[in-house]
Structures are given as C-alpha cells and as structure tokens.
Amino acid sequence: MAVFTPLTETQVADFLARFDAGSLVSLEGVPAGTENSTFFVTTDQRELVLTLFEQGEFGELPFFVDLLDYLDEHRLPVPGPLHDREGVALHRLAGKPALLFPRLPGRHPKAPNLAQCAALGDALGHMHRVSQHFPGHRPNPRDLHWLLPMHHKVLVYLSPEDQALMKDEVDIYQEAFGNGPELPQGALHGDLFRDNTLYEGDRLGGIIDFYNGCTGDLLFDLAIVINDWATEADGRLDVERHDAILGAYQARRPLTAAEREAWPMMLRMTALRYWLSRLLVVYVDPPAHDLTPHDPEQFRTILKARLAHGALPLPEVNA
C-alpha cells in the first residue's frame, strides 16, 4: 500500500475548506506509487487527487507547481494543481507538503496500440515545443553529471563483464555529450513511462506524476519514452510503435540535425540511467518503505539490445 501517511476524513475536510472544490464525500487511499502518499478525494462537486510528498526537498516543489500551471495554460493534458482562495497551491497537511489535483480520466496502457503511441508522441511534441519557453529552471538530476559519480557505487555488485560495460559506456557518453553541440533545451517530464499516462480508449486523458520534472535536453525525455513504449521484452525496438511515436512527435517539433546525430547514444544513455538507478535502489539506497524495487535487469537488457542492434531510422519530417 502506497499510503505512507494516513489521513482522516476530518483532516481532509478541513483541508478542502481552503478551496472552492466542494465538501468531502469520500476519501480513498491509492495503492499505486512508490514515493508519495496518494488519495482519491470525492467532493459534492468533483473528483480530485490529493498527494502528500514523503521525500525530496520542499523548496523544489514550487518548480513542479509552476511547470504544471504553465503546461495546463498551454492546453496540455496535465493535472494543473488547484489553488486555494488566496491563489496558493502548495500547503502542508499532516506535516507533509500537499497538493490537490483534478482527477484525470482513463487507465494506464499496459500494451499501447499504435493510436495510443501516436497520441503520446503528439502530446510530448506539443509539450516540448511550448516548454522551451518555460521560465523555470531545475537541472536534470539524472543526466550525465549524475552518471559520472554514481556508477562507481554499484560496480562492486556487478560481474566483471557488467563492470566493464558500465564504465565503458559512461566514458563514451562523456566524450559524446560532454563537449558535443548543445541540444535543444526545455522542461522535461523526466519519467514518462506508460504508468504515468491515462487513456480512455485511444484518447490520451492525462500525463501525470511530474515529480522527476526538470529542465535539460529535450532528447533525453524522448529517449526515455521510446525505451519504454516501443521496446519488446528482449530489449529490441518495435518498428511500428517507434515510428508512430516519433512521427507524431516530429509533426509538432522536428528534431534538429544535432539531435538526430545524438539519438542512438541518447537511447543508450537513458537505458543505462535506469539500469543504474534501479541498481542503486537494490544495493545502495533501498526504499524507506516496504516496497519491491523495479528489476534492474530490464534496462541492462535494453542497453545490450541498443548496443547490438543500434537505433532504428528516424521517421522523416514532411516538408
């Protein structure tokens, strides 16, 4: 159960009184999630989601509020946080930072079809196009600057073959990205896996959980998506899903020549990013709560497949 800080109906009813969101009808803890406490809140006016932040710095949360407000204003399918009558979104509840969101429609797609992939590509391309003008700034916490020191922490737990693989890859990334041309920058989701989207049939109802949001290389965000949405169990890319996402994405924001050149390496680097972060959770920094960590092997498999088979050709942009 991912409710780490239980709440009473009285606490939530008092919290709701600050907002023009109606009176509490029901409160339900949400079992999904690994980091924060989440509740479905039903009032006599609407369906809401209440999140208590169990980890991280309070000072970083205004960035997420500003980003979601910005994307909501640009008609992206994101849950713009509710602001109280004083215009404030971020509060404390039960001693934890708290935000209230509209509950978006839909379910997570376990095996996304081509229409769902295209809808995701379109939304992400739209988001990246407008996010280049977002004024906020939060450095990417999982980019090359993080990989360089953190990969040393897990080497002792790896086979000699995997130690060499990880060290060689990090060296290659440093050469490729450390002094390479600057790629287009903007605000990123930072963790846009399938379970951070909601669909009603083929329609994308929402992109959620922006708590890895940051600013940095837009290509980093896109590579995370392809490595999850368009990858088979053996790590190889599925051509149809790959092209559906990237074709729709580039109709909104065509990739630059520098991005096209960096694309195969970015797929590899984001695969290693998740292999490493999951290894860290298993061996170095286990979760504070009794939760089963994600399997690191999945992204080792993806990395090995990217090395063996390379990237697929990028769809061309119609002039």
How is the secondary structure organized here?
Blueprint: H1 9-16, E1 24-29, E2 37-43, E3 47-52, H2 61-73, E4 91-93, E5 96-102, H3 114-131, H4 144-150, H5 160-178, E6 185-188, E7 197-200, E8 203-207, E9 214-217, H6 218-229, H7 239-252, H8 257-284, H9 297-309
Antiparallel strand pairs: 1-2, 2-3, 3-5, 4-5, 6-9, 7-8
Helix pairs in contact: 3-7, 5-8, 6-8, 8-9
Strand content: 5-15%
Share of residues in helices: 40-55%
CATH superfamily of the largest domain: Aminoglycoside phosphotransferase (APH), C-terminal lobe
| CATH fold-level name of the largest domain | Aminoglycoside 3'-phosphotransferase, Chain: A, domain 2
Overall body shape? globular
Kindly report the oligomeric state of this protein: single chain
Largest sheet: 5 strands, antiparallel
Number of domains: 2
Mean pLDDT: 94
The helix/strand series, from N terminus to C terminus, equals: HEEEHEEHHHEEEEHHHH
Cα(first) to Cα(last) distance is 50 Å
**Low-confidence blocks of residues:** none
The neighbouring-strand order within the major sheet is 1-2-3-5-4
Radius of gyration: 20 Å
CATH architecture tag of the largest domain: Alpha-Beta Complex
Q: Count of helical segments? A: 9
Number of strands: 9
- Estimated structural class: alpha+beta
GO molecular function: homoserine kinase activity
Family: Belongs to the pseudomonas-type ThrB family.
Protein name: Homoserine kinase
Catalytic activity: L-homoserine + ATP = O-phospho-L-homoserine + ADP + H(+)
